[in-house]
What we know:
Helix content is 31%, strand content 14%. By secondary structure, the chain is of the alpha/beta class. It has a single domain, classed as Rossmann fold, CATH 3.40.50.880. Strands 3-2-1-4-5-9-8 form a seven-stranded mixed sheet, with helices on both faces. α1 links the parallel β1 (8-12) and β2. The longest helix has 15 residues, at 220-234. The protein is globular. It starts with 7 loop residues before the first strand and ends with a helix. 46% of the residues are buried.
Amino acid sequence: MYKMNLIKILIIVTNINSYANSNLETGLWLSELTHLYHAAETKGYQVTIASPNGGNVPIDPESLKTFTLDKVSKKYWNDSAFLAMLKNSKSLKEVENEKFDVVYLAGGHGMMYDFPNDTIIQNIIRKQYEDGKIVAAICHGVGGLLNVKLSNGEYLIKDKTITGFNWFEESLANRKKKVPFNLEAQLRSRGSDYRKSFIPMTSKVVVDRNLITGQNPFSSKEMAKVVMRELGKQQ
Length: 235
């Protein structure tokens, strides 16, 4: 009997737990992981969670507050097996030569420090994109696309329609003086066609062929739906 190949999804998360210029805690924004994880788990897909160094994945405490901890995220936050997995993420070196149907860069301010210059992330994303497989990124995770160059030497995001956490939203989050760079400005500087929602802190997901980007934490639910939809088109 013919059996379909197992769908494999790689979710890349941060190891950084504080801003470089202060003791203020940061890390992964929980909902930007949980919604995609939940959608994939529901469909029986295989999900691998990896980080640059492997091991513990810190959670941004802001993402655990009552007004940000949605039903799906709360479910996983109360799941001891899930939390144990986050304390033992695989390292990127362990998975860099594996093939995945989706590579997804989760967000949170921690990603601004260990994603943009990570050469393994760049290699994984380049190969994934050039193989025609889905590359997805949300919020500050989009910063992991900044320095990815294709085999022709061009930046991956050049001339691509994308989104990501914008500078006004950084102001609303009271993080302008904490972050290491202006993500929106950097995305534009690479020649991307940057888009954002008319109303800040509302959901926006942009699809440009096999590149999918989400603007902010409030895009997490829509991002999961869009990734599942686009994945279905490839099967």
